[in-house]
Amino acid sequence: MTQQTGLKRSTPMVDDTSIKQVQDDFISLSALNQYAYCPRRCALIHIEQIWSENLFTAEGRIMHERVHEVGNESRGGVRIARGVPLRSLKLGLVGVADLVEFHRISGDIWQPFPVEYKRGKPKPDHSDMIQLCAQAICLEEMLSVAVPEGALFYGRTRRRADVVFDEALRRETAETAEKTRDLIAGGITPPPVYAKRCEKCSLINECLPKKMEKKMVVKRYLERMTAV
Question: Hey, which of 64, 161, 170, 201 has its CA 20 to 30 A from 119?
Answer without folding.
Answer: 170
